[in-house]
Amino acid sequence: MQTSPHHDATRARPVSSNSLATFQVVPSGAAVGAEIRGVDFSLPVPEDVKTALRKAWADHMVLLIRGQTLTDDQLLATSLIFGPPHEPASRKYHVAAGHAVDDSFLVSKHSTITIISNLDANGKPVMDNGGLGSYEVVWHTDNSYVKVPPAGSMLYSLEIPVNGGGDTSFNNQVLAYEELPEDLKRAIEGKSQVHDSSRNSAGILRPGVKLPTKPEEVEGPTHPLVRVHPVTGKRALYLGRRRVWPSNYIVGLPNEESEKLLDRLWAHATQPKYAWTHYWKVGDIVLWDNRCCMHYRTEVDTAQRRVMRRTTIKGEAPVAPW
User: Fold this and answer.
1) Residue 285 and residue 78 in contact, taking contact as beta carbons nearer than 8 Å
2) Out of 74, 87, 161, 199, which could bridge 70 as a Cys pair, Cβ 3.0 to 4.6 Å?
3) Shortest CA distance to 227 belongs to which of 295, 287, 155, 289?
4) Among 67, 5, 8, residue whose Cα is nearest residue 40
């Protein structure tokens, strides 16, 4: 499967009768990802096609479905094929520097749908809107800073900038683990990491949160550096996100040793050979597995609008292989 870098704002009509007869899985040809053809999620999806979709997700980790035209209810129904919703924390009001910040314009009427956009409360594209805005979003795993992270994330595109950035890359952390040098595998065996919850995916400090100044001040859950996928049984690196110190750190190691080990792991895990990049069109759905993938987004042109809906799928606490 080839994804064109041209951001076509037109909606391609899906060729679909929602049956196994027309259902197709077209691998990306990269280390991760496949396009699903022959499914229209605005129509009922039979159980055998749902089963095939779940198998394709387990096999390819990232699924692309083009040409969809969905209401929020239909998007939620699509997400439910892969599991119940992960309930996001309420974000309507934050307290920052003594001021109440209302970012309710980033929240759908459905509590489990988040609006991912670069628009402010007046509908104007900006760099910083209290969410991800137009910033570059570095390699990360969604919500690794909670005790029970979501299994997956589903993103549905409504407005896409024309050649204006916002391209999203995904990488295969199962393959990254399998190809770890033996000394690195030995070094991380039995090890866990504290996942810093102070900043969002764009690296912006969350309103009302104090920036850590030393490892003892880093708040967040502890997860194993390697986790076992509950469906496939495969091992995957689980690194979360990488920030300027002090941030995530490996439990039980001196700070300098922890930083050096994390630097080596990140340099290995984010190699281009493990990645596939998607160039968005209006009507695209992309579903990715947070248990075995990371993702990255390029900066968005603030002269252009980018509006999407995101749902997250309920997961389980990461389980270590040791």
Assistant:
1) yes
2) 74
3) 289
4) 67
What separation in angstroms does the CA of 205 have from each of 148, 215, 247? 21, 16, 12
Pairwise CA distance, residues 108 & 16, whole Å = 28
Which tens digits make up the pLDDT trace of 136-154?
999 999 999 999 999 999 9
Please state the separation of Cα 204 from the chain's center in Å: 17
pLDDT digits (tens, 9 = 90+) for 280-294: 999 999 999 999 999
* pTM listed for this prediction: 0.89
C-alpha pair distances (Å), 178 with each of 226, 258, 300: 11, 21, 34
Q: Is the C-alpha dihedral spanning 265, 273, 240, 198 positive or negative? A: positive
In one-letter notation, the amino acid at residue 283 is G
How many CB atoms neighbour CB 126 within 10 A? Answer: 15
